[in-house]
Structure to design on (123 residues):
């Protein structure tokens, strides 16, 4: 059993990540975490977004959350990005490495990474 001080330290360390998932930023990143997504590797993708957004100082602007089935199981892990006044962007077959690139180019730079989108996967 952990001591009360150790538990308090763990709680404080994880607080930013919980707030990040519950925040109300102008950009929402939603990771599909149904059984199909988890089986395809969505858990490390979600972690990569949570940690990357925090590390890059985007917590005020970007909210990271999870959802159930998005409906395109063959393309899991699936990540949807919602921005006010813009069309939703759906990224497919995501990995933690691709997530880092999406954070850098899309969330920070404002440029959709077309090669990872569903429209590119279908064509």
């Amino acid at each position: 059993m952990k001591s009360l001080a150790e538990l308090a330290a763990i709680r404080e360390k994880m607080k930013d990540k919980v707030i990040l998932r519950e925040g109300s930023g102008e950009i929402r990143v939603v990771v599909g975490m149904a059984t199909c997504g988890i089986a395809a590797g969505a858990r490390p993708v979600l972690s990569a977004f949570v940690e990357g957004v925090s590390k890059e100082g985007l917590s005020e602007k970007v909210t990271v959350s999870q959802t159930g089935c998005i409906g395109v199981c063959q393309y899991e892990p699936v990540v949807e990005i919602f921005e006010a006044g813009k069309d939703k962007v759906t990224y497919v077959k995501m990995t933690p490495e691709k997530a880092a690139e999406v954070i850098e180019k899309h969330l920070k730079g404002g440029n959709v990474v077309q090669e990872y989108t569903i429209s590119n996967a279908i064509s």
Summary: The chain has a mean pLDDT of 88.
